[in-house]
Design brief:
The complex is a heterodimer. By secondary structure, chain A is an all-beta fold. Chain A has strands at about 5, 10-15, 20-25, 30-40, 45-50, 55-60, 60-65, 70-75, 85-95, 105, 110-114. In chain B, the strands form two sheets. In chain B, strands 2, 4, 5, 6, 9, 10 and 11 form a seven-stranded mixed beta sheet that branches. Chain B is globular. The chains are: A mainly beta, B mainly beta.
């Protein structure tokens, strides 16, 4: 069945280091792959998305990589800061069928140590 | 900035009570969503609406209903609350066009059913 899953449920990094959050997906027929960040006590917040015909997209301090060969998505955060501590969700927007709703991953918790 | 507000941050109800969760957005978005979030299960879509008076079942609609009488307001109704509906409930809205992948979330309502 369709699923969007995560390699690591928790990730701990030192402040200033780069973070890499991974996500594996099984549905190849998706238009977009998307990352959200959820801070404690708040709803998820959109970070960045990547279209399925791209391999890489950069934002402010973040880079998303898409490897369609192995169905793998990653979010790289440069110079991780304490404010980056949150749960990160990957999600995908299906191309076919009901594409009004997203397929969500289970989330990875990122803890930044000072 | 888009603002999505939810009527309560915390709510305690008794088994069998009828519960209304209200969500209001101020950006004239066509699409609105109700999710529940439970530890280890990520975000699960209950219902969504793509227009006034239009609704569509998500992945876990059982035990819930929704109402969208005005564009800015989307209500989630638990007809007869049960203890297994104790959860965090998140509302989101989304526009169209270039912002299709960006859902804007409210802060959530933590519902406890005793």
């Amino acid at each position: 069945g369709e699923s969007v899953g995560l390699h690591l449920p928790t990730l701990s990094v030192q402040e200033g280091d780069n973070s890499i959050i991974n996500c594996a997906y099984s549905n190849s027929a998706s238009d977009y792959f998307i990352w959200y960040k959820q801070e404690s006590g708040k709803g998820p917040q959109f970070i960045i998305d990547i279209r399925s015909n791209m391999d890489k997209r950069q934002g402010q301090r973040v880079t998303v990589l898409l490897n369609k060969t192995v169905k793998h998505l990653s979010l790289q955060i440069a110079a991780t800061q304490p404010g980056d501590s949150a749960v990160y969700f990957c999600a995908e927007k299906p191309h076919a069928g009901n594409n009004r709703k997203l397929i969500w991953g289970l989330g990875t918790s990122l803890a930044v140590n000072p | 900035d888009v603002k999505v507000t939810q009527s309560s941050r915390y709510l305690v109800k008794r088994t069998g009570e009828k519960v209304f969760l209200e969500c209001v957005q101020d950006m004239d978005h066509e699409n609105m969503f109700w999710y529940r979030q439970d530890p280890g299960l990520g975000l699960r879509l209950i219902y969504f609406s793509y227009d006034v008076k239009m609704k569509e079942k998500g992945d876990i609609p059982e035990g819930y209903s929704v109402s969208r009488e005005k564009k800015e307001r989307f209500s989630l109704i638990l007809e007869s609350a049960s203890t297994n509906q104790t959860s965090m409930y998140l509302c989101a809205s989304r526009g169209g066009g270039a912002s299709y992948n960006e859902q804007f979330f409210g802060p959530g309502t933590r519902l406890t059913v005793l």
